[in-house]
């Protein structure tokens, strides 16, 4: 046996783990790094509401009709809104809502798209044709009107109790679900294409020759190898979902007041834009900054994952 | 020699679209057409032929990756169908040509080698670990290879990993689809020697797919020559190399430089292999055959013993 | 080719059919009941009368049956009456559709022109300062909530500076060309800015790719003037992929148009659908949504065909 013994290639630069290499490339992407920092700060900002509510006793829903439209002061750093509520704590709590909807709806829709894409790509043939016609049909729909109709659906007509239909939890889950329903197609197509290219690779065929079925191959070989484009796509989806949430809540079909979200805080801003312009500026600016940071983060990840990008 | 695997009238046809809703004429690609042969216990059978002759497709059928359109496959005397394949899986493994595509880049070598065991549910995790370590040594890799990833290895080393994976469930037959052609020449002989050594030690059978007759000469017991999906010649190595019977084989051998043989007999093949989408009528080789007569254009020859050599099968109206 | 077009049209019709059923069912799930609303204006109705009306309008029938009856009427152009406008649905819908198309087309042209200018400038020196600034602008365009951008435009240019009117399409009593144009400025800018970001990125990427290609390098090596190289040799080649992607985005523009109209109180499809849903105007909402689907399907279809036609490498089978 000694005659055929060979030694492994020495660990060179090229041999450092793929994730280390990516992190190195990502760090060089200035906009991506800056966005990561911005997003961490934003998350911190939103989460800071929790200690402020419990320790300092600040209440985002406490109205004070004597202090409507107060300018910034020591007590209310960003002033108060049309009901005399503290604008800062509402922005923080509303941000939690918006970010949570963004992440959850992306997760739900993304996982659905992932499953559709993997199945279509792996099984091919009829399954593929059927699933992709379905996806194409979804893509061809007018998104916003559809979201509005879904948002307007009366839950009691679907058999839910009227208390539940009016509750905050229902409003929250409804928006997560309706956004997930319309925003999964991009991921489905991407995953399908990636699956198609991977499933004919020899390592998948070797596993199949050893008796592996689809339920082994998909999680073990396909998913890890399509992870790269999926991570980027998920990131970009989060940005889009946050925008959808804000639009729907703004139009009154999303998160139901008094629970704040960045979108519904702009509800009344249109009428108040002359009297209290600051109230129209803050929530929108936060949405804007969040989404732009998410998109730059996606760009940075793409750069980091692309083997063609220099080092 | 006991029969291990037998193919009986295997055909593989691919439907290339058409025929459906709003579709045109259905197009059928006949990749493999009515092939029968058997591989004995401990035997190495070479499958040779030009690119596109259906070697890989046939190899896939034997490895259970491609259900045949027609014909049956027997393993140790039992016909393989949906019910019997699962048991045969662990006994038939496959090694591919491209060592870079054959290993999942996201898996450490230990997981790659143990994969057939995991899939088949063989052994406890501890037993699988022990077996993996033994295999790594058996194929001549350092033990510390186990915790590394495929990108850290050279082509030859990867092919050793692929062989170790194939050996893991203790198979009886390994289908090796051009396992050497992607490797450097110096590495080729190392891997070939390894395969030979393993065969002697473990009593393996190989279905060794190759387009290179020279490589085949070192390893195999018998040779099957495939042309346009048809088996045109099947003979023990020595007989085939000394007295090729089919004009196609003669031409193939002619292309192989060999010491001590004059370039007298056999002609170079003219033209290209026709498309398996519409194979020529009669003998599929006739458009390129120097001996072609009228009968070749109308009647397909059957595989029969060559004159005076019972073990030497050839499908030609004018076999030598 | 003809077969491909036929199949695509068939597919689009099928999607439309399925969608009409989905929308029909969804509209039925919106709050309220056509009958309740009718009765609200006629409180004296006895239970017998209610029952009679219910039968008369077929509201006691199963959903599928009601849908088929509606479909029968819709196929011959009978979309019923708008409750809130007390007019046939089509006479409310057609002017709104024209208004929306006007806004979309003007904004589309504006954003395409802007995107080409910015994209080419950015591609001249990738990684340079100008490229950085334009990239930031492009990302901002993709990331900005359209309704908030509209709000900020109103705040700055209408409320603070009084340059443009904040809403409507004409001042009562004026309505001359200048007046109408002034009313369009802010909606067009808003909508154009929102789609310019994505377009700019496509133009930039496509131009960078083309500028690397051989014949462009040859032209450079031969000493052609830089502007000639960029505009004549590179631009022409970058055009095809970009134009098709832009055509594909026309459907997406519709979303933005709906929001822009709502914000600037323009009487287009967006505002119409929004008001119809809020006002329980079932017929109008249903028909409006269907037409929105038709517009989206149509622009996708055209873009697809244009793509196949412009790029012969794509086999249409
Ligand atoms: N999945 C498939 N679908 C359609 N056609 C196929 C498929 N697999 C193989 N073919 C066709 O079948 C024929 C035989 O292919 P095969 O890969 O078996 O040839 P081969 O002898 O292995 O060639 P090579 O030496 O190039 O590997 C070819 O014409 C090929 O195009
Ligand atoms: Mg092959």
The helix/strand series of chain A, from N terminus to C terminus, equals HHHHHHHHHHHHH
Query: CATH superfamily assignment of chain A?
Result: MetI-like
What is the end-to-end distance of chain B? 27 Å
> Can you count the beta strands of chain A?
0
The overall number of domains of chain A is: 1
Q: Would you identify the regions of chain A where 5 or more consecutive residues have pLDDT less than 50?
A: 1-15
Rg of chain B (C-alpha, Å): 21 Å
Terminal CA distance of chain A: 40 Å
Bound molecules: adenosine-5'-triphosphate, magnesium ion
For the biggest β-sheet of chain B, the strand order reads 6-7-8-3-9-10-12-11
Write down the CATH topology of chain A: MetI-like fold
Topology summary:
The complex is a heterotrimer of chains A (311), B (320) and C (317).
Chain A: H1 18-28, H2 30-47, H3 49-54, H4 87-123, H5 125-139, H6 143-152, H7 162-166, H8 168-182, H9 185-199, H10 202-209, H11 214-251, H12 269-272, H13 277-305
Chain B: E1 3-15, E2 28-40, E3 44-48, H1 55-62, E4 70-75, E5 78-79, H2 85-89, E6 92-95, H3 109-120, H4 125-138, H5 155-167, E7 173-177, H6 185-202, E8 205-210, H7 213-219, E9 222-227, E10 230-236, H8 237-242, H9 247-255, H10 294-298, E11 304-306, E12 309-314
Parallel strand pairs in B: 3-8, 3-9, 6-7, 7-8
Antiparallel strand pairs in B: 1-2, 1-4, 4-5, 9-10, 10-12, 11-12
Helix pairs in contact in B: 3-4, 3-5, 4-5, 5-6
Chain C: H1 2-28, H2 34-40, H3 47-56, H4 63-75, E1 81-82, E2 87-88, H5 89-124, H6 129-143, H7 146-160, H8 177-211, H9 214-221, H10 226-264, H11 269-278, H12 282-310
Antiparallel strand pairs in C: 1-2
Helix pairs in contact in C: 1-12, 5-6, 5-8, 5-10, 5-12, 6-8, 7-8, 7-10, 8-10, 9-10, 10-11, 10-12, 11-12
The structure holds adenosine-5'-triphosphate and magnesium ion.
């Amino acid at each position: 046996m000694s005659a055929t013994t060979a030694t492994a290639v020495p660990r060179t630069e090229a041999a450092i783990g793929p994730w280390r290499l990516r992190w190195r490339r990502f760090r060089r992407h200035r906009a991506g790094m800056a966005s990561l920092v911005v997003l961490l700060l934003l998350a911190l900002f939103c989460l800071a509401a929790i200690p402020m509510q419990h320790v300092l006793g600040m209440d985002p829903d406490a109205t004070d009709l004597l202090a409507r439209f107060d300018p910034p002061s020591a007590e209310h750093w960003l002033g108060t809104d049309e009901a005399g509520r503290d604008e800062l704590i509402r922005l923080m709590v509303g941000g939690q809502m918006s970010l949570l909807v963004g992440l959850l709806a992306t997760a739900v829709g993304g996982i659905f798209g992932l499953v559709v894409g993997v199945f279509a790509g792996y099984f091919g043939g009829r399954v593929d044709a059927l699933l992709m016609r379905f996806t194409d049909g979804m893509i061809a729909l007018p998104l916003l009107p559809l979201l509005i109709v879904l948002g307007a659906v009366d839950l009691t007509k679907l058999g839910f109790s009227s208390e539940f239909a009016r509750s905050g939890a229902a409003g929250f889950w409804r928006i997560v679900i309706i956004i997930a329903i319309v925003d999964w197609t991009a991921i489905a197509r991407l995953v399908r294409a990636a699956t198609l290219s991977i499933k004919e690779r020899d390592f998948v065929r070797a596993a199949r020759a050893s008796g592996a079925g689809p339920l082994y191959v998909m999680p073990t070989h396909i998913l890890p190898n399509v992870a790269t484009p999926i991570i980027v796509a998920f990131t970009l989806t989060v940005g889009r979902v946050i925008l959808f949430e804000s639009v729907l809540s703004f139009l009154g079909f999303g998160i139901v007041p008094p629970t704040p979200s960045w979108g519904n805080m702009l509800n009344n801003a249109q009428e108040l834009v002359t009297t209290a312009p600051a109230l129209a500026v803050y929530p929108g600016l936060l949405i804007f900054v969040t989404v732009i940071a998410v998109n730059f983060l996606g760009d940075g990840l793409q750069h980091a994952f692309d083997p063609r990008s220099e080092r | 020699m006991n029969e291990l695997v037998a193919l009986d009238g295997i055909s593989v046809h691919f439907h290339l679209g058409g025929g459906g809703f709003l579709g045109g004429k259905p197009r059928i690609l006949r990749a493999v057409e009515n092939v029968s042969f058997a591989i004995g216990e401990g035997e190495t059978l070479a499958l040779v032929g030009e690119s596109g002759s259906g070697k890989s497709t046939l190899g896939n059928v034997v490895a259970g990756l491609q259900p045949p359109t027609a014909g049956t496959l027997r393993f140790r005397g039992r016909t393989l169908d949906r019910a019997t394949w699962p048991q045969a899986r662990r006994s038939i493994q496959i090694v591919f040509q491209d060592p870079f595509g054959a290993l999942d880049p996201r898996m450490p070598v230990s997981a790659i080698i143990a994969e057939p065991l995991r899939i088949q549910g063989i052994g406890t995790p501890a037993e699988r670990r022990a077996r993996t370590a033994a295999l790594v040594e058996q194929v001549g890799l350092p033990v510390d290879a186990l915790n590394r990833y495929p990108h850290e290895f050279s082509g030859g080393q990867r092919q050793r990993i692929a062989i170790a994976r194939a050996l893991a469930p203790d198979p009886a037959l390994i289908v090796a689809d051009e396992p050497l052609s992607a490797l450097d020449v110096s590495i080729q002989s190392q891997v070939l020697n390894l395969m030979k050594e393993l065969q002697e030690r473990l009593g393996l059978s190989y279905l060794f797919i190759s387009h290179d007759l020279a490589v085949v000469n070192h390893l195999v017991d018998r040779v099957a020559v495939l042309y346009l999906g048809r088996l045109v010649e099947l003979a023990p190595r020595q007989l085939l190399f000394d007295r090729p019977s089919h004009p196609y084989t003669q031409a193939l051998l002619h292309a192989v430089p060999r010491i001590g043989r004059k370039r007298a007999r056999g002609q170079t093949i003219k033209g290209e292999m026709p498309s398996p989408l519409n194979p020529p009528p009669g003998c599929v080789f006739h458009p390129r055959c120097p001996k072609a007569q009228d009968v070749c254009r109308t009647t397909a020859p059957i595989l029969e013993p060559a004159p005076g050599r019972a073990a030497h099968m050839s499908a030609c109206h004018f076999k030598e | 080719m003809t077969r491909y077009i036929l199949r695509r049209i068939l597919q689009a019709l099928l999607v439309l059919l399925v969608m009409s059923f989905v929308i029909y069912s969804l509209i039925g799930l919106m709050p309220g009941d056509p009958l309740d609303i009718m009765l609200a204006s006629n409180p004296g109705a006895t239970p017998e009368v209610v029952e009679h009306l219910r039968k008369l309008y077929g509201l006691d029938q199963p959903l599928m049956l009601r849908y088929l009856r509606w479909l029968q009427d819709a196929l011959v152009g009978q979309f019923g009456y708008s409750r809130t406008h007390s007019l046939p649905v089509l006479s409310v819908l057609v002017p709104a559709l024209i208004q929306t198309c006007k806004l979309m087309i003007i904004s589309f042209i504006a954003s395409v022109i802007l995107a080409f200018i910015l994209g080419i400038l950015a591609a001249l020196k990738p990684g340079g300062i100008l490229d950085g600034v334009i990239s930031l602008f492009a990302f901002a365009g993709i990331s900005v909530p359209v309704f908030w951008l509209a709000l900020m435009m109103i705040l700055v240019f209408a409320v603070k500076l009084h340059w443009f009117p904040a809403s409507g399409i004409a001042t009562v009593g004026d309505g001359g060309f200048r007046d109408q144009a002034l009313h369009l400025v802010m909606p067009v800018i808003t909508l154009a800015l929102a789609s310019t970001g994505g377009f700019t990125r496509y133009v930039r990427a496509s131009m960078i790719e083309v500028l690397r290609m051989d014949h462009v390098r040859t032209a450079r090596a031969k000493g052609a003037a830089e502007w000639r190289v960029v505009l004549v040799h590179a631009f022409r080649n970058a055009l095809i992929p970009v134009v098709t992607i832009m055509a594909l985005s026309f459907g997406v523009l519709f979303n933005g148009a709906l929001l822009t109209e709502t914000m600037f109180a323009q009487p287009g499809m967006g505002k119409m659908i929004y008001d119809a849903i809020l006002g329980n105007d079932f017929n109008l909402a249903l028909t409006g949504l269907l037409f929105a689907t038709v517009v989206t399907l149509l622009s996708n279809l055209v873009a697809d065909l244009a793509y196949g036609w412009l790029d012969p490498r794509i086999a249409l089978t």
